[in-house]
Write a structure and sequence with these properties.
The two termini are about 30 Å apart. The chain has one domain: Rhomboid-like (Rhomboid-like fold, Up-down Bundle). Helix 4 packs across helix 9. The chain has ten helices and two strands. It is mainly alpha-helical.
């Protein structure tokens, strides 16, 4: 175990995520409104939205399985990418893909809000004047927070698949290794299908995952195809 090397940005991201998760477990119920309740990110038109949430939401998680799989992926893919890109470029990639994930999620929510109410940021007073079912949809959007590093993790997954397409990966229930160039596109298609299907009870922000993947793809293409842009962040 002493020979395991974790590059500095990945190591610090792991520590911060774990501290946020443990802090949530300790303080939830004691300071939920003042602290824990303001760290997830809400829809930009929600009365619960705060300016720091687009950053803090990336370090919040909804359960042990959520944080375990995200941190395992951060360690597995992030370590390779940070060693390849360097600390500064890797951190930029991680944060930008996390923000890109939120941007697409917000865009989808804005579309749904406009469909339900005719506006993207309706006031509470306005919601009292429209159909009850539509108002309930709008209120659900306003009151539904999003947490997790999954958007940034999907960015890392896309980058790994683009830069190491022939790397072999093991997937649950598949007894043989499969190359990344086959797994990653299938995974993205599954997320797109789940996002469009909107199964009842599915609380996963699939479009946030897709947003992180999309921004990750764009950044890798820019950094590979434009040496001036690549060198700017050295």
């Amino acid at each position: 175990m002493n020979n395991i090397y974790i590059p500095p940005v990945v190591k610090n991201l792991l520590i911060i995520n774990v501290l946020f998760f443990l802090g949530t477990a300790v303080f939830e119920g004691l300071l939920s409104d003042q602290v824990v309740g303001t760290l997830p990110v809400y829809y930009f038109g929600s009365p619960f939205f705060k300016g720091w949430q687009p950053i803090t939401y990336m370090f919040m998680h909804g359960g042990w399985a959520h944080i375990f799989f995200n941190m395992f992926a951060l360690y597995s893919f992030g370590s390779l990418l940070e060693n390849r890109w360097g600390a500064k470029r890797f951190l930029i990639f991680y944060l930008v893909t996390g923000l890109g994930a939120l941007a697409l999620q917000w865009a989808v929510q804005a579309f749904e809000m406009h469909q339900a109410t005719g506006q993207i940021m309706p006031s509470i007073e306005y919601l009292q004047t429209i159909d009850i079912a539509d108002a309930q949809k709008a209120i659900a959007i306003y009151q539904s927070p999003m947490v997790g590093a999954s958007g940034a993790i999907f960015g890392l997954l896309i980058a790994f698949g683009m830069l190491y397409p022939n790397a072999e990966m093991f997937i649950f229930f598949i007894p043989v290794p499969v190359k990344a160039k086959y797994i990653v596109p299938v995974y993205i298609l599954v997320e797109l299908s789940l996002g469009l299907a909107r199964f009842e009870g599915d609380s996963v922000a699939h479009f946030a995952h897709l947003g992180g993947a999309l921004i990750g793809y764009i950044l890798v293409k820019l950094w590979k195809d434009n040496n001036n842009f690549y060198n700017y962040y050295e």
